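Researcher: First entry.
Model:
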Amino acid sequence: MLFADFDRSVHCVVAQPFLLETNIDGRRRRHVPDYLLLTDSVPIVVDVKPKSRISKPAALS
């Protein structure tokens, strides 16, 4: 987020911008991403994870 703050292509940062919801194997899955960056070219969804969870494969999916 610090880099996004100084990136001139980022026009807007929205915290907890929307709810993603789906059914997987009969279970409802829900997730709210941490940030949405609106840039000159494409929107970027950002999920922030603690460093301790990055080494776990489940944190990347």
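Researcher: Second entry.
Model:
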Amino acid sequence: MTDVLTETEAGTQSEGQGFCCSKTRRAVLLGAAGAGATAVLAACGTDTTGTNPNGSDFAADPEPAGSTGADAGGGSGGDSGGAAGGATLALAADVPSGGGIIQGDYVITQPTSGEYKAFSKICTHQGCEVNEVADGTINCPCHGAKFSITDGSPTSGPAQKALTETQVKVDGDNIVAA
């Protein structure tokens, strides 16, 4: 049984059977539902805080979260991959030769004695955070991707792109963004 009367059905019913009032009540309820739906849809409009007020400022093939480089909190440092120039990333004594550490937003490695590298700790596969530096690789726990401590390139697993590198230098006892 349906709740909607066709025009021919409505014409055959008499007002004494209560159909006059149910049509009015139905119209009010449908009107209220329509107004509520309009309010909900208006609340789901595009965000106008981006660069395009139509909400179309997006990439068709976005990079994984954090893949444009980690930030040490001091702003952008030009070609340094996102770290502020001169920002201290780690103590040189804390980074083992032939290995590395995860410090803040970075993986800092020392592939050979006295040579330091820094990479984003965000895996380029699906944006997970790498969690280990062992046996010459930087390892991601999510899907098993492994990256070279020398250049951040993927050595195994599903990742196809290298970790974003930040140029670093030694300044006294510190490793700093160059």
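Model: Note on the second entry: Residues 32 and 38 are 10 Å apart (CA to CA).
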